[in-house]
Amino acid sequence: MSDHLSQSAIPTEPRRHGLRAWVRARLTRPLLALLAFVLIAPLVPYAAMYAERGNVPNPGTALWNEVRQRTGPIDADTQVRGVESNVLINQVGERWREFRSKMLVPAGAWLLLGTLAFLALFRTLRGTIPLEGGRSGQLVPRFSVNQRVVHWFAAILFVFLAVTGLVLLYGRFVLIPLLGPEGFSATAAAAKEGHNLFGPIFPFAVLAMLVLFARGNGFRWIDVKWFFKAGGLLKGHPASSGYYNGGQKSWFWMVLLFGIAISVSGLILDFGVFGQGREVMALAHVVHGGVAVVFIAASLGHIYIGTIGMEGAFESMSHGYVDANWAREHHDLWLAEMEAAGMVGVEPNALEEVKRHDNIDFKGFGSPGTKAVEG
Amino acid sequence: MARMKFLCDTERCIECNGCVTACKNEHEIPWGINRRRVVTINDGEKGERSMSVACMHCSDAPCMAVCPVDCFFQTADGVVLHDKDICIGCGYCFYACPFGAPQFPTGGVFGSRGKMDKCTFCAGGPGEANSAEQVRKYGRNRLAEGKLPLCAEMCATKALLAGDGNLVADIFRQRMAYRGAAGLGTGWGVAYDKGLRKGSGLEGKAAGKDE
Amino acid sequence: MFLEFVEGPLWYFSVVVFVVGVLWRLVDVFRQPSRTDLSAARAGGVAGALRTIVTRSWTAKGFSRGATFHLVAGYMFHIGLFVLLIFAAPHVKFIEERILGFGWTPAPHWVFMVASDLAFAGILLLWLRRLMHPVMRKISTFDDHAAAILTFVVMLTGCLALLKSHDSLRAIHMLTVCLLMIYFPFSRLMHAFTFPISRAYTGAAMARKGVNA
After folding, report:
1. Chain B residues closer than 8 Å to C165 by CB
2. Which of C113, C114, C120 to mutate to test the interface with B (most CBs of B within 10 A)?
3. C89 touches chain B (CB under 8 A)
4. C109 lies within 8 A of chain A by CB
5. Interface of C with B in 152-211 (CB under 8 A)
6. Residue in C closest to A361 by C-alpha
7. Same domain for B118 and B182
8. Do both B88 and B137 map to the same domain?
9. C133 — contact with chain A (CB < 8 Å)?
10. Which chains does chain B touch, 3 or more C-beta pairs < 8 A?
11. Which residues in chain B are contacts of A59 at CB distance < 8 A?
12. Is residue B161 located within the same domain as residue B175?
């Protein structure tokens, strides 16, 4: 068509004239290409090397892998005789340090302080669990002399070991500001020596607890029901129980299992002369410290309930007798057994006690379904 | 300030234990305690290497972190020292140390170890430098006299370097450049195995080629 | 400063009180009048005395059931205590330097520790039984409890000072030792010296009467 003009005849923009315009028009692309070349070309050898790198092994690999024991134990000798003196780099140390500083110390602090806070809160809200029916004046024998001696033996050892252990774990953060470095050093030296000397006695205490308190501590269905009723801790919802309730049985098994774990790991740590390497010692410490903080936290609950938390509870372990009303409110099934055996309303007469003590000492006073005393 | 560091050149160490002997002698270290030791890997086999190791004076020292009585401190030079009067001999620093630097005088039962002892970078300990008490407890304080640790000074082949970390690293870098990468793990190659050297194309100045 | 006082003036004072007090009590025992027995002696008194000193070291036949706990815990404590008092290295050193002027080979460290463990366990069990057993609780006096607790505290402070690194811990141990020594002549702890006398007297008297007691 006649109005179809050629491209070159249509002015799109005013044509420029001059050198600058010529350069801009002709040389822009080549110049850009040159710039790109100048920037990228020097990288080519590096790229080649990079691509080729798989073919050049690092000659030091074997040596340093062996030093780090990545492929197995190190095959090395040294003139210095000692356990693991031929090991150049010990991997366990850093992992242990991370565990102790980042897990054990903070988590333990939260756990212990949290337990204390919970107990304080419980006490504020619930108060001491009272004897609802008041004292009846009738006594029921509950723990024998040997049971009480062994319990307090274990308890005193436990508290001493717990306190000295906590001084070693937390003293640096809590006591150095109070006592100064030299004062705390003396405290920590005392704590370490005390802990290491009394520690080996503790396994025997745990063993004695096992022997004297195992009877009656097997879990039954009634304990599950007891847990569902929160152990009768909430007002107006009493829970039925035998000689030991579910909470007490849990504590017994904790003492046994934690006690064994702590005793074994403690003995490994205390007697480090049998060729234990750092890995064994670090693992033993992890077990010992981890179990200890949990054990101590649980013990706070036990101590609370046994002392100020419940009216009429402490005398069971100090004198061995409990009030019949206390038994009715907290261990009703056991009370029924004792009533059947004629053991309620006994006179705590010294002679009678000795007779009873001599007859039934190791057996304690009752467990579900068995008669407490013969004759 | 300069950070003090050790570096043991495994290519040069000939396991003469001169560093061990120098340290024990200079500081009158009692029997059973070994602040420095030489470990030989693959003894008698191809690729045998020896390394002298004592306390590495870590910047983030694990021993310092785990000590229950906080008896460690670090000088301005980066040297990690401890106070024997405060130490209770619990052994935690030994569990945490990657290099096994802490040493104890007794290996007794019931956890009785005695006070910890370790390499001090010849910088003594707390208290007045080179006082009779400090020397008795920690050994000589050479750093206070402007000298470097005796183990490195006595090293027969200058395998063990000690001093300002930057300078030590520089010396080692020069050595590496001279040897070439072939010097790292197969030093035998530089001395005996020409084919290995050529094949990997990793000759350094030591091969005699112009650079 | 405190250590110097406790190991100096206080130590000398307590030694004087201890020695004079023990001798006084023993002399007092021997000064007690005894009625002359005019009947003919059935057997030698000396032989009976020596025999009874030995035989009272275990329970008589028929009493074993009630007394086993006491026997075992008692020996644990006493043997442990004697071993650690007489053969522990720091004690031997102290005796050599401050008391006798000569010493002897001390026991190895582990013996010292095991003896201490036995002694601690023994005294703790004995004292707890004193508290828990109805009869013992009723007949125990202040002296009974104080002696047990003070002895335990002396042992405990000694244990805490085992590292031998801090003067303060050693001073506390020496302080409690001095307190124990001062308390000793006025308390039931005199049984340490009077038990052979008491057993010998009973044995001699019974032997002269011809009774196997």
Report:
1. 85, 88, 115
2. C113
3. no
4. no
5. 162-163, 165
6. C66
7. no
8. yes
9. yes
10. A, C
11. 181-186, 189, 202
12. no
Q: What band does A216 get if pLDDT is binned at 50, 70 and 90?
A: confident
Least confident piece of the model among A122-126, A158-162, A297-301, B177-181: B177-181
Residues on chain A touching B95 (C-beta within 8 angstroms): 92-93, 96, 278, 281-282, 285
Whole-structure pTM over 0.80, yes or no?
yes
Tally of structural domains, chain B: 2
| Nearest residue of B to residue C159, measured between CA atoms | B110
Nearest-Cα residue of chain B relative to residue C167: B85
Tell whether B181 and B160 lie within a shared domain: no
pLDDT at A232: 76
C89 φ, ψ to 5°? -55, -45
B43 with B125, same domain?
yes
- Asked whether residue B156 falls in the same domain as residue B122, the answer is yes
User: What fold is seen in the domain A94-363?
Assistant: Fumarate Reductase Cytochrome B subunit (1.20.950)
Which chain B residues contact residue C162 at CB under 8 A?
112
Q: Give the domain range for residue B194.
A: 170-207
pLDDT tier, B22 (very low <50, low <70, confident <90, very high otherwise): very high
Q: What is the pLDDT of residues A19-53, one digit of tens each?
A: 888 878 888 899 999 999 999 998 888 888 777 66
A362 vs C64, higher pLDDT = C64
Q: Are A184 and A332 in contact (CB under 8 A)?
A: no
Model pLDDT for residues A356-365, shown as the tens digit of each residue: 655 544 344 4
Instruction: Write B67-74 long-range contacts (CB < 8 A, 24+).
Output: B67/A172, B67/B92, B67/B93, B68/A168, B68/A169, B68/A171, B68/A172, B68/A188, B68/B92, B69/A171, B69/A172, B69/A176, B69/A181, B69/A184, B69/A185, B69/A188, B70/A172, B70/A176, B70/A181, B71/A181, B71/A185, B73/B126
Check whether residue B106 and residue B140 sit in a common domain.
yes
B127 touches chain A (CB under 8 A): no
What is the mean pLDDT of the segment spanning A125-145? 88
| Chains within contact range of chain A (3+ C-beta pairs < 8 Å) | B, C
Can you give the residue ranges of every domain in chain A? 1-89, 94-363
The amino acid occupying position C92 is: V
Same domain, B60 and B126: yes
Q: List, for residues B172-188, the tens digit of each pLDDT value.
A: 999 888 877 555 544 55
